[in-house]
Design a protein that fits this description.
- The structure is a homodimer.
- Chain A contains 15 helices and 23 strands.
- Chain A is of the alpha+beta class.
- Chain A folds into 3 domains: about 55-290, Bira Bifunctional Protein, Domain 2 (BirA Bifunctional Protein, domain 2); about 305-400, Anticodon-binding domain (Rossmann fold); about 420-490, Translation Initiation Factor IF3, CATH 3.30.110.30.
- An 11-stranded mixed beta sheet of chain A has the order 3-7-8-14-11-10-9-22-23-21-20. In chain A, strands 16-15-17-18-19 form a 5-stranded mixed beta sheet, with helices on both faces.
- In chain A, a hairpin with an 8-residue loop joins strand 1 and strand 2.
- The radius of gyration of chain A is 26 Å and the shape is globular.
- Strand 5 (about 105-110) of chain A pairs antiparallel with strand 5 of chain B.
Chain lengths: ~500, ~500
């Protein structure tokens, strides 16, 4: 996977066959997913194992996620910056837990031109260490705080696990927020704001629900006091971590001497958070909403929201195309519209192609429609078709797109809700994980040994722990001691 | 330079002194430039020699350049994509001229985690080779062309020359356009469109004029048939290359077997172009418009277009702040506005700080102004101050900002025009380069030996050759043989 398949020139020179997705999502999810990414032209393999090429329609989705998220960050007063790609090894080693977590996956630059470097440079797996080394000079007094920075960049983690497009790779795109506060209270208060932004983006744009919660100590970010995540559920019953937020406390501040003079004139260390949303969300989104025909894009992140397909023969083509272009011009101020005017492809094949690409709405326009002053709207999510009057087209298209957006989220929520189950005993937990999959909520004593035992014996780990814990949990499913918390157990990517 | 200066904790813990720029632009330009970047907080040094930290106000300028340029690209039908950061060594070596040009500056990843890689990976200095290796599969027929891709990303060129913030560094941000056409004519026609976009961005946004022209063979892009550039003139009399465009012909197509079937069913190689604008423009812009107080930002790229400074004492503060906030609310729909409400900094110091940061317009508001239903507008470019009635504030601010934008471009154009001189003989050329600096237009026979002779003896190279050549040039200034072209000679960054 991710390896550029060899192909002979004569193979390339032949006309491509029209080919849709051959795997069924419900039967062979992994194969379906790969085809849904590659055949729909969201991404392609590259000659570097584990590194993905984002084709225009895949990258356009990322631009939409980035721009929507960035708008929220800016409203919250967070400022974007850019820090170097390279981190000197000595800096990466300054915080012990951090380097332990990341060193096994670091890509190292050791040579430049013909010279060997005196010190290895890490290609950033994340930028904490270089940021803190630099911003130390920017912070002197409590008046310089809070300092809330965000970066949109690329990072490299040389994973040796099986790569999967968007979901797991050696380079990905993300935001990394790095914020510094004078007090723990202010730092903690940021969590709700940032996780609220991530929830808004995942739900309202990507139509992706998730379970928000706190990570266990064994799963938290290397160097953090505590980590929080939104966990999504994939169609194959496995959980996958979405956006996350880390309370770093003063760990990095200690290591990097990030101090300020407080209002009483005393020297204090700052309190820090870090947080991220990544290109992984594109993969989760495609996996969640797609069907056997391919991806189904939520309108708010779709590069093309509606495609106009003229239904014509040679005689009717000029008149119908004129109407199609007029429709596009009317709609383009509000929506992202494409007219498929190719004269060498049949309408039926166009339908298949745009379904394969996940375009939310198809607008069919032919001579008979025009005679009735109407077009036909065909929804990608339900397949439903209905006529719409041309004078009302803007409102009608808007209505359908809103409804598709709502419907995709509602369906995903239903599927998530019906795949979150409760277990009171170890036997129940084991049975649910091995039969139904999904997420199982069960009481846990909080001991790492119990977490590890469940993982070893069932394959399910604690993906996170709900923030709202209602009532007292029963006894720990693993050891029978008093339960501390209801935890979300699941097999996970 | 670019090295993080050591600083003790006690130094950091003291309150910073208010310190403006101490160097005079006209006397010690290099020192002035460095202070204008660092003290104005557009950028900072990093622990990696030659790699810059873009602080929020510097990065915000890049976001504005990127967004304005991207809008033009999208209007032209160009699509964004993302390709991997790493390029396997064997790919980089596929085009001979290309690898010869870039290999001396490549940063190599040779290790990942604890493993030594089997093949070195180049951190992309530019992405031609990996793009062409991948898109070969996307192009089969003439119907797949043109394919016009663009990337916004970071690249690394491990230069061993002296780094200068924004102007020359080992990592920079840019766009790299990569386009493929069925015919040479179509490929060539793109040049005017793209260079037109770059001219629009540099002139209308950055207020930077430049000389457009063709590069000589010795200065063209490694692997291209011909390169074109916009050359700016720095205040120290040296030229600096701005955005560029490369006609790659079929060089890369041959090396990467980038072929398609044409309308007659015959196999053809594609014709290619590549083009770029980089973060260097930020530095040229700051250098060009700044004065002894620091940078002067053109309003269309200024992160803050106008700052409102309340002129208050303890008694008048609440009432004046209320008016200031109301002004901000009224203006914020159209402009980027900040109210400096700090109560621990004097208005005079605020004036200095915002001048140092290059904010184009200051709006002063005090009790006496309010009594007259007015504010005072103070321009950063001219220093001129005038009252403006509060009910007309939106129109008045818009007028001043437009005027500042126009004025900065007009001044820069005047300076450029007055620093482009003509020479008919070698003596004249030498005298002009050594006395006045700037750009000298002189006839050249086109021989590399003459270009090299001038460079060795005067320090000036052919920065480019104007596209419009009026009339027949005189004899070559270097050898006296028939002149082929009027060339732009200059000392250059």
């Amino acid at each position: 996977m991710f390896i550029n398949p060899e192909e002979t020139t004569s193979e390339r020179m032949s006309e491509p066959k029209q080919e849709g997705i051959t795997a069924k999502k419900g039967q062979d999810f992994d194969e379906w997913y790969t085809q849904a990414i590659i055949k729909s032209e969201f991404a392609d393999y590259s000659p570097v194992s584990g590194c993905l090429v984002y084709r225009p329609s895949g990258y356009a989705i990322w631009e939409k996620i980035r721009d929507a998220t960035d708008l929220e960050f800016k409203k919250a007063g967070i400022q974007n910056a850019y820090f170097p790609l390279f981190i000197p090894e000595r800096l990466l080693r300054k915080e012990q837990e951090h380097v332990k977590g990341f060193a096994p996956e670091v890509a190292w630059v050791t040579e430049a031109g013909d010279s060997k470097l005196e010190e290895r440079l890490a290609v950033r797996p994340t930028s904490e260490t270089i940021i803190y080394e630099v911003v130390r000079k920017w912070i002197r007094s409590w008046r310089d705080l809070p300092l809330r920075l965000n970066l949109w960049n690329n990072v490299v983690r040389w994973e040796f696990k099986h790569p999967t497009p968007f979901l797991r790779g050696r380079e990905f795109l993300w935001n990394e927020g790095h914020t510094m506060f004078a007090t723990r209270e202010e730092a903690d208060a940021e969590r709700e704001q940032i996780m609220g932004i991530y929830r808004k983006i995942t739900e309202e744009f990507l139509a992706l629900p998730g379970l928000m919660g706190k990570k266990t100590d064994s799963e938290k970010f290397a160097g953090a006091l505590a980590s929080y995540s939104i966990e999504h559920l994939m169609p194959n019953g496995k959980a996958i971590q979405g956006p996350d937020f880390h309370s770093d406390g003063q760990n990095f501040a200690k290591a990097f001497d990030l101090a300020f003079v407080d209002q009483k004139g005393e020297r204090q260390l700052v309190w820090q958070n870090t947080w991220a949303i990544t290109t992984r969300e594109i993969g989760v989104m495609i996996a969640t909403h797609g069907d056997d025909k391919g991806p189904v894009l939520p309108p708010r992140v779709a590069p093309i929201q509606a495609v106009i397909v003229p239904i014509v023969n040679e005689q009717t083509r000029p008149a119908v195309l004129e109407v199609a272009m007029k429709l596009r011009d009317d709609l383009s101020a509000s929506f992202s519209i494409k007219v498929d005017e190719r004269d060498y492809v049949t309408p039926g094949r166009k339908f298949n192609e745009w379904e394969l690409r996940g375009v939310p709405l198809r607008i069919e326009v032919g001579p008979r429609d025009i005679a009735q002053n109407q077009v036909v709207l065909a929804r990608r999510d339900t397949g439903a078709k209905r006529p719409a009057k041309i004078p009302d087209i803007k409102a009608e298209v808007g209505k359908e797109l809103d409804d598709i957006q709502r419907n995709l989220l509602a369906l995903a929520r239903e599927r998530l809700a019906s795949n979150v189950r409760s277990a009171g005993t170890y036997e129940e937990l084991k049975a649910l994980i091995s039969s139904a999959g999904g997420i199982v909520q069960a009481p846990w004593c909080g001991a790492g040994a119990c977490e590890e035992k469940v993982k070893q014996e069932t394959g399910a780990k604690v993906i996170n722990m709900p923030l709202d814990q209602n009532g007292t949990p029963g006894p720990c499913v693993a050891c029978g001691a008093a339960g501390h918390v209801i935890a979300n157990f699941a097999k996970s990517y």
